[in-house]
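Office hours follow-up: a student asked to see two folded examples consecutively, so here they are.
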Amino acid sequence: MLSVFLSLLILFGVLQQPALAFKKSYIVYLGGHSHGADVTSADLRRVADSHTQLLASFLGSEEKAKDAIFYSYKRHINGFAALLEDEEAARIAGVIPSSSLWNKARFGQDTIIANLDTGVWPESKSFSGKGFGPIPSKWKGICQFDHKEGPLCNRKLIGARYYNKGYAAYAGVPLNSTYNTPRDVDGHGTHTLSTAAGNFVAGANVFGFGNGTAKGGSPRARVAAYRVCYPKMNESSGECYDADIMKGFDAAIADGVGVLSVSLGSDSVDYINDGTAIGAFHAVKNGIVVVASAGNSGPTPGSVENVAPWFITVGASTLDRKFQANVQLKNGSIFQGMSLSKPLPEDKMYTLISAAEARAADVSEEDAILCKEKTLDSKKAKGKIVVCLRGENARLEKGEEALRAGAAGMILCNDESSGNELIADAHILPATQLNYTDGLIVFSYLKNTKNPQGLITEPKSVLNVKPAPFMASFSSRGPNAITPAILKPDITAPGVNIMAAYSESTSPTEVPSDKRTTPFYIESGTSMACPHVSGVAGLLKTLHPDWSPGAIRSAIMTTARTRDNTGSPMKDADYQKATPFMYGSGHIRPNRAMNPGLVYDLTVNDYLDFLCGIGYNSTMVGQFAGAYYDCPNNYNILNFNNPSISVPDLTRSVVVTRKLKNVGKPGTYAARIRSPPGYSVTVKPNLLKFEKIGEEKSFKLSIKVNGRRGAKSVFQFGELLWSDGKHYVRSPIVVASPNQ
């Protein structure tokens, strides 16, 4: 089997003749091959293709890579020799350190990652099979694309299925051929699958912006798509139905999937009535890591979705990159905005008008300011830059309304709930988006200036933005409405302005007048954050094939970070301090997750005991177990071995039990506690000594109210940290008490 991307190591360079004075001969060593005795010419050709593809990801094109490579080591030594500039060689050697999780886990090689979503665009370069060896023998799935379209699955995209009978039952009418295929006509499924495990693609961009090499979290993993989501039939209908979702889970388990990425959800309901939770339980029971999105109903408290403890539930936060398109007013004021829209047709000042002032007859100011459909008067808006307010209707729909009214451009100002969260949209007219504070200033300028004018600058990519990450306002929040003793979300990951592959059967805005298509697009949502964690889970599956889904979940959670790139505590979109109800354990840190030191492991029986503890009887639990299950007596769900600790209704004091497993070197771990305000927290024992891998030790955490008036009815937050000086195993503590 092909063993590529083992370690990117530049061995040496030899000066060439003067004609090539600026280039040197470099060897890129990638380890060894394991072809076996029956290696074929096709296998060797795939090795060479993989070398070309790797180098192209740094040089920008396969043509440049082919020109540079003069040897490809294909039989026993894995690597290639190429003529490179010093800067190019340094970039190859330095971009991916040998100590990184990517290298240690061989880029997720041969782990199978699948998603339940809107399907897949198989022609995307993110799913190219070039350079991949034979499909892993554990794979039992199929490819349901119409054979008339040719062999659309390959050694990368190894499977694709569709399930739509639940959707059809709701529709009540026969479905046409566009539904009976795994092909993605929406873009969502292609985007999430390529984020989790897309291959290396050089020169990826969105309408020329963000040019670079696209790659998923586990770029050498195999992928499969299960289409279970379809276009909404009406405003009250769903897109993904439980019957189809559960069928997707059932098939994925049988097919041999290792990680399931589930960027879908709905309002939380009891687990036994939640098809996604039931399907996920059976997947985890069979050793599959299931990662799910937290939902996009923030900042409403208690809005988090996919709250069962066997999910890794993911919130969304920002990157340190933005696509900046500023607003410049005639008075000299400049405000930083965000956009992927085309520039204004002329470099000049345009008349600005509030959408409320541009409203059509018989339209309220409240509807017009939001630029709702058919609210603007073209006689008032034509040729001007219309200033709209975010909220209620979709951002891209506002741009469509401004264009319909003949506006030259649009400035979209955040409402208060959106705060500082800026989304890079590819509007169908020149446009940009401003944060809430700057938007207030612009509206004030319009109101108090006789002839307000301004312009929108052309978008440009800006890196190393600070502060980052901060939470997206749309990211759903805790507390967990079903089981408050289980903190959700578990983790946060990049979910704002994420570039990934896209379906070329739809426009990026999905508005009727937009005829553009693009192989890559930028999307935002917890749907985009979820596959980032799925990709990391794939790497951990490759690196630690013996770890359980619970161990992988714990490693990701306990190694997360709660500070931004300024060293300050993470913030929400309004720049107020964020809490574990927003980010769970914190922002994911993949390189730390590969060596967490200790994990809070969970078995299937732990999950069954949890169900007993929330009141399910043995018969109900048996439905999950597959047989009658004898519930333990007096089980307390506060002792469920969760990596986070949540006590939602503490009257005086409580003792919580947890168990840690050593997955690293022998060591002695000491406990450090930051007690929630109004409470005292102690741990016994406060030292845990581990002498071998797999050894488990328990501890008890005592939480006590500080006096009659010490505790508060609102939730308070603290932290438990176990450390041996090298590893830092961190758990958030969340406590609330009834009114004293």
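And the second, which I mentioned at the end of office hours:
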Amino acid sequence: MNIKRSLSSVLFLLVLAVCLLIPASLGAPAAQQTPPVPKELQVKPKHEVTVAVKLVQVYVTDKSGQPASDLTAEDFEIYDNNKPVPVLHFEKHFSDELAAAPEVAPRPSLNRKFFLFFDLAFTDARGLMRAKNAALKFMEKSLLPTDEISLVTYTALRGLTLHEYMTRDHARVRNIIENFGLKSVTGRAESLSSFFYSDTLMSLQNDQVEGTPDESFFTEQARLQTGQMLDTTRRQGYVDQARFYLEAMNNLAKVLRTVPGYKNIILFSAGLAKQLLFGRTGGAVVGDWSTPEQLAAQLAEYDAAQADSGLRSDFTRLLKELKNSNCAVFAVDISRVHKEMNVEDSGGAMPAAREFDGADSLKQLASETGGKFYANTINPENAMEEIVNTTKNFYILGFKVDESWDGKYHKVKVKVKKKGYNVYSQAGYFNPRPFKEYNNFEKLLHLIEIALTEDPWPYVPVEIPVASLNLVERGWQMALTFARADGSDLTEVFGPKTEAYLLLFNERGELALIKKFRAVVPEKEKKENDAFLPSFLLPVKPGKYECVLVMRNMDTGRAARGKAAIEIPGQLPVMPYLDPLLLLRLDDRAKEINAAGEPTLASIYGYNPGTYSAVAGEVPPETRRLYTAMRLACPAGWEEKLEIKAVLARGGGVVERAETGAGGSEESRKLRVAVLDKKREGQLVKMLLELETGELEAGDYEVKLEVSGPNFAQPLIATAIFSVK
């Protein structure tokens, strides 16, 4: 087996190094002792070169081929480019020990990663059923909750499709596999990929893009995924199909360079024809001929017996890329079992069938990447159990690297000092490259990683607070989603080429809606503002959603993301009604960002953005007053003589009560709700309120406004939830 660790985000490498070294002990399982952080790691990171910890997964077996579980950090030696380096981090993860005490089992720093790859271009319907049943069996066989699963298919019509990408939601993957061949169930990564392909194709129409092989692959892949017609002379022959299939796998393997640890690819395929890759058995000889036609026929026969040199070169390149990316291929042959045929058949079909058999290509993929080949005579469901068991016991070692952003390859060798052990570890790793050098396919996987995976790595985004409010705007049920991004850590997220994405997931976890806009944040604005507030306003069908907002700098690759929940009611409210409250803070150094032509937060709620900025769920600890923007829908004149009461609750108990208008409660602190501004826009009355809270302790709060008036049959209520850190 081969394992590789290639890191991209330098700042977060150092953070990981510190976090990992705290719970780990040299020579003892993780979480038993707390050694100090090594002095050489206590440095301020820089963007060019940094000190980081490289993590590798290591599999060790004894003389009998059984996993060796009795090793400590002192038993290992690591060589980086042939230079010995000390082991700074050590973990041991063995399934039997974890099962005996699951409540104290440490979570691995590197999770197991499986890629279920269905090759449907060179497989018939019967093979698909064999693969489907085997994959479902795999999903049932002792997967750990931390195992990350990716689901990939390749077809002649759509090329490479990422349905799910490194998710721990195993039930979702199982559901997609169960529906193969029955109905279309779209994965989240597939939906995001389709959006990215369409959006990028539109931008490429006006841009002059260098015709590199990687970009040519992406463009053709994008056209396949979006249903655009390819040249009629392309993709018609077996060789052309095989070449594009190898190119797709090669590009996937390249992207996986940056994914840490082993990538176990379970490939369900019938393989590529032996004759095209390795030549026909026995070859062909040009013999005597008497006419030019006979000579031409013999030459054609000779050419047909030779391997296709271009295809063979592509296959060799794929093998190299898989090894460099530390991808172990477990190849499962799902073709028809030729041994079941009648070998005495006088038609002679058996030898011809062997020439087009793809088992040899699958064998080479498995053997040269450290995986295993499972012949079509083996029950694929039995193979799944063996794959799970083969990969479930491993060590994690960490060593210091001075990492540069030059993309260079480093060789790695892991040894056990004791004799009688076999060690399987990574062959090397790549230093990260600057994001601006990424091709479009790499940028797509970068987006999927930061937007969809539970714990993105190595592209760790900055977590930012997000709020999502359900409004009625222009007669439509709308979702207003925004984030508040402030702090020095977000400096690199915003720039001249910034992208903002909003992803809405329904109750089934499916990606229901995607929206994106591009923003330009020049250096001058970054210096003049301490916070940026990207926002989206869009119509949404009734239901419950999880909103994920992602910001990405297309020059640096730095990103930020946040999540919020929202529920869109099934019916429009009847006047009079209140929209959800928008909490504000006094702030003249915040910048609202949104798509061109779209309304801003300030215009939607009617406040001055030069004086106030929106709060996305988090209020500063120094807060003594809450500012609230309120939208009241009512007939003209009803906004006169309003009475507004405010209640602030924490942990279910009322903390403060405030009133405006005549009278007040003697039992409560009589804090006025001051109306700072009020204006009518059509059927909406937009108001700015000030509520004095006094000093607030750290914790979660809910503010509730109760609005009543002479024309109201009953009070109207609106709430907002926030926390004080």
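Two things to take away from it. Residues 10-111+393-437 form one domain. The radius of gyration is 31 Å.
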